[in-house]
Structure formats: structure tokens, C-alpha cells
Amino acid sequence: MKKMTMPKDFLWGGALAAHQFEGGWDKGGKGPSVVDVMTAGAHGVPRKITDSVEENEFYPNHEAIDFYHRYKEDIALFNEMGLKCLRTSIGWSRIFPKGDEAEPNEAGLKFYDDVFDELLRHGIEPVITLSHFEMPLHLAREYGGFRSRQVVDFFVKFAVVCFERYKNKVTYWMTFNEINNKMDVNNPIFLWTNSGVIVKAGENAKEVMYQAGHHELLASALAVAKGKEINPDFQIGAMVSHVPIYPYSSNPEDVMLAEEAMRQRYFFPDVQVRGYYPSYVLKEFEREGYNITFADGDEDILRKGTVDYLGFSYYMSTTVKSGVENDNTGDIVNGGLPNSVSNPYIKASDWGWAIDPTGLRYALNRLYDRYQIPLFIVENGFGAVDTIEEDGSIHDLQRIDYLRSHIKALQKAVKYDGVDLIGYTPWGIIDIVSFTTGEMKKRYGMIYVDRDNEGNGSLQRYKKDSFYWYKKVIEANGEE
Ligand code: BGP
């Protein structure tokens, strides 16, 4: 049988997000973003959303790993690994410090010109997320974030400024990072960082989330339409968190429960890829009596702003069983799913994230079958505690095992199942601040950064064993 290989232009890369690694939170005219007022958390300790920036609180995203001043050194390391692309985001509040200004902040635009030029100098393609949880704090405080339809216009204006400025440097774009993770309304940091919204006493959290989500879907569709006018060669994607939900058994009740639960993963990409609201959500609005405001013309906007590809993050799978509440006894986080149980067939990371490489092949098949457009794995990684030896080496063998098994799974989906996959950018190519816990301790990188949870350390960079391993994977286009 012919030896199948990965497409020669497959985009092997790495993924990051401005707020988790740039630092320089108030440099170059940047305004505070919704993330800049979130204190550090820890494993099992939620991050707090504060009213402003108190001096006595520690805000891990303020300096992060100081890419803002070290971008040349870090990009040289990415080049040494042989990355074909680097996924990161443009900090919205670097470009519009308050979000509602008439003119953008030139120093912010210049910073990303410098970063993209440095990447392109090394032949590394920028893959850019417009909003990765970095809405200007002023839009959240003054307008209620995406509660307000005005914020749709502010986002579209931000998107158009970026598309115009970087139209000859960036081809691959995504509108909103993990636009669907706010479906888990039990964790307030998702709705806050996605949409700049905090649910008030007496409000129905899901109703508030769906209204903000509708405005975001409009903003995404309008941005896509404008982007294609500015440069028809742009490839503009949606970006969702995709955590497959398995039925615990062949009991039809479990199977249907998993099918229903998957709707919280599929709703947003359904609208962004197909261009219309699925019936199961309209039925939910009716059944629950949600009063979601649609304006005339919204349907037309959604239909005209469908995406070119679907980017998604994959970390783990979850499992549901009818008739039980969260068992939560297992070491596997349930992502806020009711009826979730541990899967007896798979192990979990130290942070309770299930390790399920076959789930990635399964996810690729389910998403490709559903949408029949190119896919892009823009996050996949293994958060773990790393130990640095006396000689500065870091033997992160668990991370290599995790990534190797997930790469084998995606290769099977491409070579055996025929999935059209654009690329693979493992999450946190360099150690960064964890989003859900605000920790440095939960490391993802193939490059170690000397910084701890309290912000101590030299910020020196060290190459982990996975740095050399991934370099070989890329050189061999995945064949080794
Ligand atoms: C996803 C986010 C990333 C990243 C990742 C890992 O939700 O898109 O920003 O943080 O999760 O999560 P964590 O950093 O909490 O381990």
C-alpha cells in the first residue's frame, strides 16, 4: 500500500495568546483589558474578577513572560524549532485602549508590525486571533461588553483596522477564541473574558450568555465579510473549544444524553460555519422563554459572514451518564457538565484533564463530517509541572508522550479518514500564564521560562527535551 505522508504545506506551528505571554500590560499606550483585572488563582482556586487594578493583588498577566521586550529572542527560538507558523492574538486594548476611540493607537499597531516582520523574516507565518479574551476593560465597564450591540461595531472597527494594517503580512485569521466556552455559565471567567459580561442577581445566566453570544456571532460575521472585501485571499476562521462528550454506556439514554450535551459545543460553530441558527437552540429559547433580541437583517448578516475554516482547541474528552449528578470524585474535570462521570478507560493529567489521543481523531472526524470545510488544530497541549535540572535541562517526557500520541491521531485522521487539516499549533509553545488558573506552574511549553506563580524568577529561557523532539517532527513533516 502506498506510504501516505502529510501534505507538504502542512502548517506545523505553536500557539499563544497576547495576554498570556506578552506582558507589557500598560506599555505603549495599551489600556487595561478584562483579563488585566483578574487575579492569580491556583489549581482548584478560581481567579477573582476585581473592579480595577489594586496594587496589593498579583496580576500574572501584567508582565507574564515579557515577550513585549523579548520578542526577537523568542522568535529566534521558534525559528530554531523550525516552526512554519505561529498562532497568537492581537491585544485589542493595545490597538484601542478603551475600545470606543475614533482613532487606533499607533504604538500598538507598530508593536505588531515589528512582531509580524520578525516572524516573516524567519519565514514563520503569523496565524492571528483577533479577540483572545482581551476586550478593553472600558467596553465591559461602560457598555456592558457584548450585552450591548454597540460593542459589535467597536469590534468590527478593530477588526477592519487590523485587516487593513496587516493585509500583506497575515493570511490566516480567527475572530473570537473559544467563542463557545461561555456555554459553561458555572464559571464566570468565561463570560467575562469572552464577552465582558458579568451576570447580575436575578438574571438568567444562559439568557444573558445567548444574547451576548448573538452579538458576538454578528460581530464575527460582519468582520468576515469586511475582511474578504479588504483581501479576498484572507482565510478567516471561527475558533471553538471542542471537548467530545462520550456516552458512559450503550444505554440509549446515555447515548442521547451525550448527543444533547454536544449541542453546547456545536451551537456557535453551527452558526459561524452554516450561517443560520440551528433548530435545537431556537427550540431551547422557546422552551425556556429566553427573550433574545434579533434585529431585522441579522439573519442576512449571519448568512453572508460564514467562515473559511474551523479552528479548534482539543485537550481532553468528557463522559456523561444518565441518572447521575456530577460524580466529581474522579480526577477528571467535567467542564461544568451535569451528569459527567470519569471515564474508566483513560487517565488524567495532574490538573484532571483526560488524556485521550483517540478522542482527537474522533473529534476531527465529527467536525469534518459536520462542516465539510478545512479544519485547523490551533490548541492542543499538556499542562504539567516541569523540573529544571542543575544543568538547565528539562526532561518533559510526559509532554512528549502526550504530543506524540495526539500527532499520531491527527495523522490517522488525515491519511486514513481523509480529513482536510490545515495545520497543528500545540498550545503554549513557550511556558506562559495558564488561563483558567492564572499559574505559571501549569507549564505547556517546549521552552521553559524561569518564573513562578508569585512572579519571581529571572525570566531566562531554557530548551526542554520536547524542543529538540518537536524540531525533528517538523523536519520530517511528521514522518518520524
Ligand atoms: C483554552 C484557551 C487558552 C489556554 C488553554 C489552556 O481555553 O484558549 O488560552 O489557556 O485553554 O487552559 P489553561 O491555560 O487554563 O491550562
Automatic annotation (TrEMBL):
* One GO CC term on file: cytosol
Which GO-annotated molecular functions does the record name?
A: beta-glucosidase activity
Keywords attached to this Swiss-Prot or TrEMBL record, sorted alphabetically, are: Glycosidase, Hydrolase
Q: Which Gene3D superfamilies match?
A: Glycosidases
Query: Does Hydrolase appear among the keywords?
Result: yes
The UniProt record lists the keyword Cytoplasm: no
On the tree of life, the source organism's domain of life is Bacteria
Spell out the InterPro entries in the cross-references.
GH, GH_1_N_CS, Glyco_hydro_1, Glyco_hydro_1_AS
Give a GO biological-process term.
carbohydrate catabolic process
Q: Where is the active site?
A: 379 (nucleophile)
Cross-referenced PANTHER family: ARYL-PHOSPHO-BETA-D-GLUCOSIDASE BGLA, GLYCOSYL HYDROLASE
Which family is annotated? Belongs to the glycosyl hydrolase 1 family.
Name of the protein this chain belongs to: 6-phospho-beta-glucosidase
